[in-house]
Amino acid sequence: MQAEGTLSGLDVRTLFRDSQARAARLKLLIEVSRELAAADRDGLDAAIDAAAVKAARFAGFRTGSLVEGGLTVADGGLAIPLQSLAERGRVGVSLLFSSPSNPQTLANEEDAAALSLLVEMIEARLTVDLQRRKEADLIERLAAREKELEQVLSRVVNAQERERAAISADLHDGVAQTMSGLHRHLELVHLDLAPGNEAAAERLQDLVRIARTAVSDLRGVIAGLRPPSLDDLGVVAALREEAGRLESAGHQVSVADGLGRRLPGWLETLLFRIGQEAFNNAAKHAPGAAVSLDLAISADRSSILLSVLTTGGAAPSDTGDPSAARFGLEIMKERLAEVAGRLEAGPVAGGFSIRASIPLAGL
Fold first, then answer.
1. What count of other Cβ atoms lies within 10 Å of the Cβ of residue 8?
2. More confident residue, 256 or 318
3. Contact of 118 with 32, CB cutoff 8 Å
4. Euclidean distance between CA atoms 23 and 21, whole angstroms
5. How far apart are CA 310 and CA 357, in angstroms?
6. Range 118-133 average pLDDT
C-alpha cells in the first residue's frame, strides 16, 4: 500500500512531462524573441515568416503565414487578426494557420498563454517596423521640404542680387561715367583759369574736391552692391574686403572665420548683407570705433551665427539721426525673417552688439 504523501510513478511521469512542456514553451518563446529582435529591415520578412510557422506548429497546424487584405480561412484553419497593428494604421493584417495536424495541441491554459505571447511578439515587432517606416518617411519628407525651402530662398536672394547687379551696371555705365567726366572737366577748367582770379580758383577747387569725393563714393556704392569676391572667394573674403573700407575710414576691424567651409550661394549672400549693414551702421554711428565680426556654427550645429561687436567711438544713438541706426537694424531683421532667422541687437558695456542667427536647415 502506497504511503500517504508519496508520489506514484504516474504522478512523477506527469510532473516530468509538465516540466518538459514548460521548458519547451520557454525555449520556443526565447528563440522567437531573439530572432525577431535580431532581424534588420531587410531580414524582417523572413523572420516574421519563420515566427509565424513556429507559432502555427505550436498551435497544431502545419503552415502559418502573415496575410494582409482579403482573407479566406480554409476548413479547420485559424485566423488571428493583429488588432494592435490596425490601431496604428496598418489595417487588415492577420496570422493565418492552416492544415491542422493536431487539433488537441493546445491542451491547457499555459499552452494558450504561450501562443498568445508568440502572437504578441510578432505583432510588436511589426509595430516597431511600422513606426520606423513612418519616421523614415517623415524624415524624407522633411528633407524634401527643406530642399524646396532652400531652392525658394535661393531664388529670392538671387533675384534680389540680380537687381543689385543691374543697378550696379547702370550706375557704372551711366551716373559714374557722367561724374567722372564732370570731375575731369572741372580739373581742366581749373588748369585753364586765368591767373589772378584767386576767389574763382578757390571755388573751382572746392568743386573739384566735391566731384572727386562723389566719384569715390559712387565707386564704393557700386562695389558694395555686388563685390566679385563674394562669388569668387566666399563670404569671409567679401566681408574682409568690406572691413578694409571701414579701416580706411579710421576704424580698427577684425573678421574671424569659424565656418571653415563655403556655404550655399544664397546663404553666403545673406550673411554678407547682414555683415555689410552692420559695418555701415558702425561707420555712420560710431566713428573711430573698433569693430569685430565673428562667423561661426552654433554648438549644436543647428544654425550659423554672425556676431558684430562695436566698442569705443560714439554710441550708435549719439551720432547723427538715431532713427537711421534703427532703420539699418530693421533691414537686417527683414532679411533674417525671410529665412526664419533671428536678430538680437542692443548696447553692451562700452559699445553695441549685433547677433544674427540663421537656421542651417540640414546643411
1. 9
2. 256
3. yes
4. 5
5. 18
6. 89
Question: Taking a C-beta distance cutoff of 8 angstroms, is the pair 121, 32 a contact?
Answer: yes
d(CA 187, CA 209): 10
Contact call for residues 62 and 101 (beta carbons, < 8 A) = yes
Helix 109-173, helix 265-285: angle, nearest 10: 60
Percentage of residues in the chain having pLDDT higher than 70: 77
Cell of 85: 497593428
Give the span between the Cα atoms of 73 and 69, in whole angstroms: 13
**Which of the 8 DSSP states describes residue 105?**
S
**Beta-strand relationship, 290-297 and 252-258:** parallel
Confidence of residue 322 (pLDDT cuts 50, 70, 90): low
Residue 22 grid cell: 514548460
pLDDT at 33 over 50: yes
- Residue listed under C-alpha cell 563655403: 262
Provide the sign of the torsion angle of the four alpha carbons 273, 278, 284, 287, taken in this order.
negative
Residues 193 and 160: their CA atoms lie apart, in Å, by 47
Per-residue model confidence (pLDDT) at position 208: 76
pLDDT given for residue 1 in this prediction: 47
Query: Is residue 175 within 8 Å of residue 233, measured between CB atoms?
Result: no
Grid cell of 253 as nine digits? 576691424
